Amino acid sequence: MHFEFGFYSSLLLISFSQGIIYSVLLFIKAIQTTNKSNYWLSLFVFLCSLYIAPWMLGFAGWYDTQPYRDILFFVPFQHLFLVGPVIFFYTQSLLNPGFRFTRKDGLHFIPGMLYLIYILTIAAYDLLVVKDYYFYADGMDKDFDNWYQKLGFVSMLFYFVMSLRYYNQYKKLMFQVVSYADSVLFRWIKTYLIAFLVMLILPIVFDIAAWFFPKLQSYEGSWWFFLFFSMVMYYIAVSGYANPVSTTIGFRMSVFDKHPMLLSSGNQTFDVEEETVIDIEHETYEQELSPEIESWKTKIETLIQSEKLYQNPELTLTDLSKKLETNASIISKTINQGFQMNFNDFINNYRVEAVKKMFENGEQKKSTLLGIAFDCGFNSKATFNRAFKKNTGFSPKDYLVKQ
In the sheet that 251-252 helps form, which strands lie side by side, from edge to edge? Predict the structure, then answer.
């Protein structure tokens, strides 16, 4: 195979080959584990690798040599209309074990499929009909057409916003249904969304920089863009492969729907009878409490205090509703209205009060602060410190000094 090794082609070859390798590794990981989100991340890394391929191969002399020039012309490498939907479905599959790709979801890939048909049609016309360059008479690869690059950017930006909205709704839902929300807000999710945003910002940054450094508009100057792009891709691939996160709270939700459907049983198949509507947009209500809410409020307080349910670090809204033999939506509404807080903060307040009582009994002289926190139901030092300061206005150490 023809390949001219040089400074420009060799560095991009490293990035390209590493991207392909990690795409395969992620695919294998998806097969071997229950975390099927890796299928989507594998596809994303593969598409990003293909994105830099024309520049890598161009610097390796393919545009100047036949039949490699025709391969670059007639084979679509940059699938800009596919990248956005893939990252959107990766977000959903990562956060929601109940996510299933449906025929309706397939509609998101229609623009990408239409572009493939467009490229294959004009390639067939040039190769089979005129047997010469007609659509490619200008000597330009169609992947670099201005209309395609601009619309591709708009598509990716749209799906980035969709992914961000989905994540924000997920966060609201977690605070309403689990008592360990801080531990499932996933630093990795924030990280890869930021990294994807960097990918989107890169062409804008380089366009602005080109005003001051015109050389960036040249073929060699554009290499720097693909180098930085490949570095971000590599970071996402490596970090995503190392990410061990998997969720257990399944739900059905549209990014435009304010009422996600919580899968009360926590399994990965939807059953209409098992779903509960949880209102994530109204954590508190400015209205007089109904007798029903007052009654449930008393039952909740009595149960939590008598059985010390807050000591369970994995306590969920569903657990509490099953103990009270009622629907999770009723418990959620009661906590929102009756206690003016979400479920996560409600349970953490009980944990903080338990910690304060242990401080009063001098337990800090016999055990570490983290040990006391774990005994009271907290599952991490960061969550403990954050909840304690929110409740008292002081860190645990400052609180003890004040006492």
Answer: 251-252, 261-263, 275-277
Render pLDDT for 286-312 as a digit per residue (tens, 0 to 9). 567 788 889 999 999 999 999 999 999
pLDDT digits over 7-64, tens only?
999 999 999 999 999 999 999 999 998 788 999 999 999 999 999 999 999 999 999 8
**d(Cα 351, Cα 380) in Å, to the nearest integer?**
13
For residue 101, give both structure tokens.
Answer: 């790709």
**For the chain, first and last CA: distance in Å?**
76
- 297, two tokens: 């409020």
Which phi and psi (to 5°) does residue 208 adopt?
-70, -45
CA 263/CA 266 separation, integer angstroms = 6
Q: Which residues contact 297 (CB under 8 A, 6 or more apart)?
A: 289, 334, 338, 339
- Determine the Cα–Cα distance for residues 4 and 56; give it in Å rounded to an integer: 10
DSSP E strands in 9-132: the ranges are: none
User: Which pair of tokens denotes residue 198?
Assistant: 């960097």
Non-local (6+) Cβ contacts of 156 within 8 A are 80, 83, 84, 87, 199, 200
Give the model confidence (pLDDT) of 163-216 as tens digits: 999 999 899 889 999 999 888 878 888 899 999 999 999 999 999 998 988 888
Query: How far apart (Å, rounded) are the C-alpha atoms in residues 110 and 319?
Result: 42
List beta partners, residue 103: none
Residues written for the chain: 403
Beta-bridge partners for 276: 262
Is the pTM of the predicted complex or chain greater than 0.85?
A: yes
Cα torsion through 221, 223, 225, 230, rounded to 10 = -170
DSSP, res 129: I
| Environment class of 320 (CB within 10 Å of its CB; exposed 0-12, middle 13-18, buried 19+) | buried
Contact 402, 394 (CB under 8 A): yes
Q: Which residues pair with 263 in a beta bridge?
A: 275
Distance between CA atoms of residues 6 and 10, nearest Å: 6
Instruction: Write down the residue that tokens 């979801």 correspond to.
Output: 105
